[in-house]
Amino acid sequence: MSPAFSPKVVAPGEGKIVTLFGVRFCYKIVSGDSDGRLALLEVEIPPKTLVKPHAHSREDEFTVVLSGTVGVRTGDKVLEAGPGSYLVKPRGVPHAMWNAGSAPATVAEILNPAGLEGYFEALAPILTEHRTPPEYYQLAEDYGITIQDDWIPELERTHGVKL
């Protein structure tokens, strides 16, 4: 029996890059690399930047902090995670992440199952201006994502970050 997917090496600096509001997503493992089992994106969050709060209905998300320190809100829990920290964000649980520091923070985002990587590619042309048009919310809904806009003012005020 042959495997459903082939071995692959993705070297540092390799992988498709999508940038949204200054947050850089580098595709390391995508759906086709894992027979849809998982995707892995290396995400660089600029200083003082909030990643838009949301919840997934289709994927569980696991994060490894590679560099810097990120703030995280998962449900009602707020914590800081430094290099080597692991985060578990189950599907259905709203979450947000931010970099309140003065240097970029890098995390590895593992998505199970894969497929969400297509969302970021489809989102990039919608966000050509720094705003969120109605198409943004429709695309999120198409991918089973609920945006938690009501969290944004408090997170920005409390942690000194911006989208």
Q: How would you describe the overall organization of this protein?
A:
By secondary structure, the chain is of the alpha+beta class. The chain has one domain (17-156): Jelly Rolls. Helices cover 17% and strands 39% of the residues. It is built from 3 helices and 11 strands. It has helices at residues 117-126, 134-142, 152-159, and strands at 17-20, 23-29, 39-45, 49-56, 60-67, 70-74, 77-81, 86-89, 95-99, 105-112, 145-147. The strands form 2 sheets. Strands 1-2-3-10-5-8 form a 6-stranded antiparallel beta sheet, with helices on one face. Helix 1 (117-126) runs antiparallel to helix 2 (134-142). The longest helix has 10 residues, at 117-126.
Quick overview:
By secondary structure, the protein is of the alpha+beta class. It is built from 3 helices and 11 strands; from the N terminus they run E-E-E-E-E-E-E-E-E-E-H-H-E-H.
**Strand composition percent:** 35-45%
| CATH architecture heading | Sandwich
Mean pLDDT: 93
* CATH first level: Mainly Beta
The profile of the biggest β sheet is: 6 strands, antiparallel
Q: Helix share of residues?
A: 10-25%
Q: Give the total of beta strands.
A: 11
Shape: globular
H/I helix tally:
3
Order of helices and strands: EEEEEEEEEEHHEH
End-to-end distance: 48 Å
Alpha carbon gyration radius: 15 Å
Poorly predicted regions: none
CATH topology: Jelly Rolls
What structural class is derived from the secondary structure elements? alpha+beta
Name the quaternary structure.
single chain
Record the strand order, biggest sheet: 1-2-3-10-5-8
Number of domains: 1
CATH superfamily placement: Jelly Rolls
